[in-house]
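Bench log, entry 3. Co-assembly request; chain sequences pasted below exactly as received.
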Amino acid sequence: MENLLRMDRMPHIWCPGCGIGLGVTALASALEKAQIDLNNVCIVSGIGCTGRVAGYVKLDSFHTTHGRAIAFATGIKAANPKLKVIVFSGDGDLIAIGGNHFIHAARRNIDMLVVCVNNFIYAMTGGQVAPTTPLAAYATTSPFGCVEPPFNIPYIADSSGAVYVARWTALHVRRLTNSLTEALHKKGFSVVEVISPCAMYYSRINRLGDGLDMMKFYHDNVEIRHGEDTKNLDIGFQTKIICGKFVDKERPSYMERYNQWASEVRGASNES
Amino acid sequence: MKANPKDVLTGVYYIDGDVAAGYGALAAGCKFIGGYPITPSTEAAEAFARVAPKAGALFIQMEDELGSMASVVGAVWAGVKSMTITSGPGYSLMMENIGLGAMMETPFVLLNIQRGGPSTGVPTKTGQADMMQSRWGSHGDYEVIAISPDSPQEMFDYTIKAFNLAERYRCPVMIMSDECVGHMTEKVVIPPADEIELEPRRFYKGPPEEYLPFKPDPDLVPKLARAGDGFNLYITGRVHDERGYPVDKEEFKMKYIRRLVDKIRINKDKIIELKEEQTDDAEIVVVSYGISSRVAVKGVEKARSKGIKVGTLRLVTVWPFPDERITELAKRVKAFVVPEINYGQVVFDVARASHGKANVVLVPHGGAGVHNPDDIADAIEYAVREDKKIEGVVEYKTRLEKLVFEGGYKLKE
Ligand code: SF4
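Structure output for the full assembly:
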């Protein structure tokens, strides 16, 4: 684990009771289990609390602009398809400001693993409403309760073309690690959502206790349903959360298609 | 380093400036373009997309310009030369990740085929009103290099030069062209590969554990590495130290950001390219760039035929700005005449560098067309007749301006 972290950057900035660190732990174990040459792995983050992940992981790491991690990673993958690319960022970064890149990278089936930490709120800026904030939940910019229905991330990923989609909470580190290990071996656009407590803002503003209380809530309210239709994965305010692996399919990746097409073009021009 | 014959479409062509830039990128060894279609730049992207596969290169049409620019920065860090192509509205969207590129000291090229703005403006017609945006468009302090070709041949040649400058100084380089040059069709000669000199990437060669991605060489430019080579790079858009680690303190901010600016400023003389004619005994010097310098030729000839001593100074490099040269000339010329297709951008830098020693006359053009050369000739005549020292920039009223405005905005639609 320690060989995967930049120990010279510790202590990290995350609050006690935050779930992001557990996501990082799961990724580190998955990288070890997957036995991939770490020199060939890149990690890209956007902006936000989760956006800091790239900076703590001892891989080739890129801390980019808000929302653009997937687009940046697309360039990396296209330029050097040998690299295994991981995008590790938050729900606001990937699904709000970066939503367009998310759906299009899924549609193209760019070969990358996207780990999306979903804490239902904009945490780095102090608890504003997110595109994942459950209806009626409080946030500083929805002081009377969120009036917008949230996105169901696995459903967006699935319907946009992702080949692997799973959801776990920060409590399910072992299952999360297994999913990440599987997803690391997958060719194509893979998405793992990690429901995570923001002890500082989301739970405080909504009077849900501390990080531990949130973990307890996950323990009591998570239902594991592998293969569940992604349409059914909406999350309400303090309602049950369905976790599991929902999608695991094969589809040619962008680079596979491009290379096949390019070699046909080259072949045709050599004949002429 | 010579160009790779596989990348060079040696031959004589009759093509437009956009296509020439696409072929220039290929010849420069560009292996990745992330772009989004926008008039009047699309032909450059199409040309590259057509020829890319044979050269082992890739064009990807991203979902928007934010993604295009971000993908280019990513591709460079994965080890390849990269470019994007755009125009006005797309250029605005790219500003965010141009700043990221500058902050990460990423060498890339951006081709902007300028059109009329603001906003959607006049999409199919020319303009030169993104010049200040090319310099200051992204937030924060940084310096870029901007060059402005004026013919399809130059679009080919200067696209290669843009890549060389980007690699040399690890910074974004903007090719600030415009619709006229982009869509102008002329003869373009593409030489054999062994006649094209390329600047190799300044890759770090020492032991990985000693590499500092932002430790400058004496010329203030650091060596580059790429992902996948065992460096455990940490590259961030935050202000960072030589390791790449974020720092917040004001003295560090000063130290590290100052270098982003200085690495261009101290190397200015090596970067700047100017084309000067008959400035030795000139009374008036016409300062121009891009398509306006082509249009100015006729106006200058007309003024010369009337016996006026007019020289020309063409800014091939617009940024960094050639302050010293303008200051020198200002000491001995009567005035500068600056035609540009905007209501005054580069002209204010001419005025700044003149230090009040010479008059500065702007010949404006609102865009969607180019100057009437007669206006440039008349502005030269006016400037040579004017004996008063005029503070600031004086605006010459062109025929079109008079037609539009003197009727009290009563132009028939
Ligand atoms: S603010 Fe919330 S998400 Fe951010 S580190 Fe603290 S607990 Fe975690």
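Chain A touches chain B at residues 6, 9, 39-40, 42, 44, 54-55, 58-65, 67-68, 70-80, 82-83, 100-101, 103-104, 258, 261-262, 265-266, 269 (CB under 8 Å). The two ends of chain A are 55 Å apart (CA to CA).
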